[in-house]
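User: Round two. Same drill as before: sequence, then structure, for each protein.

Assistant: Same drill it is. First protein:
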Amino acid sequence: MAKILLMDDDAEFSAGFIDFLERAGNEVDWTRSASEATDRAHEEEYDLVISDLYVFQGGLPVAEGGILLIHRLRSSDMLYSRQRRLRDIPILVISGAQHAPGQGHILDMAESVGADRGLAKPFTDREILIAIETLLAEPRPGLRTE
């Protein structure tokens, strides 16, 4: 189906999520931070990026989360191939933070800075598969037909 880059600092969640995505026919690479994900995205060509919004160290959120990753990918001029730029890869943001007091707007904010879609954790298998399928089917601005 797709080559996916997953950025999430929760190893337990990521292991189960990767297993699910791979059973659905996808190839998945996993990173724990925006820096790792940015490096990977410069080394490999991905069809989709799925990113958690918050990365925690010592129980506190740090800047290495999804907003930084979105910014880095969307501001990149790197050509992946003759047909695609890094900045044009679809980005799906996932987060459980919208359930915290004062954080109900967090997925909307991620979309306003460049994410293509946001899904609240916990999400169903059907919801994530529909989101992935929809994002992969949408025409991307960086694709050229020659």
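Second protein:
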Amino acid sequence: MNPSQETLSHKLQELDLLIGITEYDIETTLNNLRNGELDDQPCQEWGYEKLAFTFQESHENRQSAWGTHFGPRMTVPQDDGTLAEYPSIAAVSREALDYWAGRAERAKNPLMRERYAGLVWDLSMKTIQTRPPYSLSLVY
């Protein structure tokens, strides 16, 4: 079975307690929860978690092509001259932002709290044209 909410919740509790973990470690752990050979879909929360740790942070005070701190991990030119992005900013929904905002407040691991809060703070206006909750600025 692909990750259920219960399986994901248990794994997130384990990750919350780890010291010295990296975003890559978290992403790898989340990927390992999914069995691509099974037809059943993982829980929606797994998708939000995976997306959160797939975005690339900009470096050297530069913004992404979206005008945000977080951006796609890669872009690939298409035959029609457009760029395919992974992940796409279009994948960021109100539901994902709400989920990350809740995780930023509940998570204990500082790296995870900062990632969730940073995504909400950075992407809310760009994706859903809504200001992020002020309380997240205290985390980020």
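The first helix runs from residue 5 to 16.

User: Perfect.
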